[in-house]
Every structure is written in C-alpha cells, then in structure tokens.
Amino acid sequence: MEFVPKPWGREYLCWKGNATSIWALELNHNKSTSFHCHCNKNTGLIVLNGTIELSFLTSKVLLNGLKKINIFQSR
Q1: Mean pLDDT for the chain?
Q2: What is the pLDDT at residue 28?
Q3: What is the largest CA-CA distance in the chain?
Q4: Burial 11-48 (b: 16+ CB within 10 A, else e)
Q5: pLDDT value at residue 75
C-alpha cells in the first residue's frame, strides 16, 4: 500500500482504477489539511473515528465517526 507523509498526518492509496481512487487519510490530533478544490471530480468522505470539522467557502460541517458527506463537482 502506497502512503504519502504529510505535515498533518498521512495519506494511503488503498485502490486506484481508471475513474476512481480510494484514499485513507490519517489526520493527527488538532492538525488540518490545506484548503483545496477539486472542480472536476466528486469526493466522498467517511469519518472512521473521531470528529472532523469540514470547512467550505461559506459554511462548516462537523462530522463524527461513521458519518459521511458527498461533495460534488461544480461546473
């Protein structure tokens, strides 16, 4: 399994296909990823353990363990 060290934790590439990839992100306590945008792809997030705060341009969402959210591409 490929993993990429990050300042906030690690990313693991679990599976990669022609149109879909599955990554597992391990975030260290009280760390955050950079703000990023994926205009040409859909993203699904599932929190496996703990709580995260997901920030958008105009809002924030708290997600606890086993909660999910889909973020669809914008055109």
Answers
A1: 90
A2: 93
A3: 36
A4: beeeeeeeeeeeeebebeeeeeeeeeeeeeeeeeeebe
A5: 67
Task: Determine the Cα angle at 55 with ends 54 and 57, to 5°.
Answer: 150
How far apart, in Å, are the Cα atoms of 47 and each of 13, 17, 56?
16, 22, 17
DSSP-assigned letters across all residues of 54-69: EE-SS-EEEEETT-EE
**Tokens matching residue 10:** 């690690």
Q: How far apart, in whole angstroms, are the C-alpha atoms of residue 72 and residue 24?
A: 19
Supply the pLDDT for residue 74. Answer: 73
With CA atoms as reference, report the closest residue to 34 among 73, 8, 12, 11.
8
Q: Which two tokens stand for residue 3?
A: 């993993």
Q: Give the pLDDT score at 34.
A: 82
